[in-house]
Amino acid sequence: MLSAAESLLAPALEPAMGSGVGDLDRIREVLHREPSLVTAVLEDGIGDEELLPAAVLFPIVRRIGGPTVLLTQRTAHLKDHPGQISFPGGRCEPTDASPAHTALREAAEEIGLAAAHVDIAGYLPEYLTSTGFRVTPVVALVTPPFELQLDAFEVAEAFEVPLAFLLDPANHQQHSLHYRGRLRHYTAMPYGEYFIWGATAGIILSLWRALAKG
């Protein structure tokens, strides 16, 4: 976990290598600007049905040694996805002007990430989840130094993972489980003690696909 002080003094990470994954300008170039123009990505076995709109912030932190992705671990007592690794985000409120507004609001509420440090780069395909949400991933470039203040009810910790690690196919593991009476397949990206899977891994794969095509 990165404390407020540690977020200011985070050590340099290994430079991102290969396929331009460390080139933040390239990431900005390949992203879709308008969510309405993006084809939705469905979790295994999920149909394109009436779902609640939501948005998450995909925060890519500009670190000297290479970009990282800021993730959170949800607290164990939550009803939805307890203990899972996630992006800051949540359901869209009627007062939110856009998915980007939702993502920024939720990031401020959950981890105290100030919008002044955040530069929206674009959107990834909507991600439709088995828990009933139509999620718009809002990719943003985050400029340190910044301090985080976690909502102790929702967020157990916040941490950073090298972007190059998450976008390396060698770290994409295939798993399966029985859910709602059928066998479902999913991708996971274990990183140390953290097991990154579900919608979070699916959204990361969306960025990997966009870069591969772009």
Automatic annotation (TrEMBL):
GO MF assignments: coenzyme A diphosphatase activity; metal ion binding
Domain of life: Bacteria
Domain Nudix hydrolase: 51-185
Keyword presence, Hydrolase: yes
UniProt keyword annotation of Transmembrane present: yes
CDD domains: NUDIX_CoAse_Nudt7
PROSITE patterns, sorted: NUDIX
Protein name: NUDIX hydrolase
Transmembrane segments: 194-212
InterPro entries assigned to the protein according to its UniProt record, in alphabetical order: CoAse, NUDIX_hydrolase-like_dom_sf, NUDIX_hydrolase_dom
UniProtKB keywords: Hydrolase, Magnesium, Manganese, Membrane, Metal-binding, Transmembrane, Transmembrane helix
Organism: Candidatus Accumulibacter cognatus
SUPFAM superfamilies assigned: Nudix (SSF55811)
Gene3D superfamilies: Nucleoside Triphosphate Pyrophosphohydrolase (3.90.79.10)
Cofactor(s) it depends on: Mn(2+); Mg(2+)
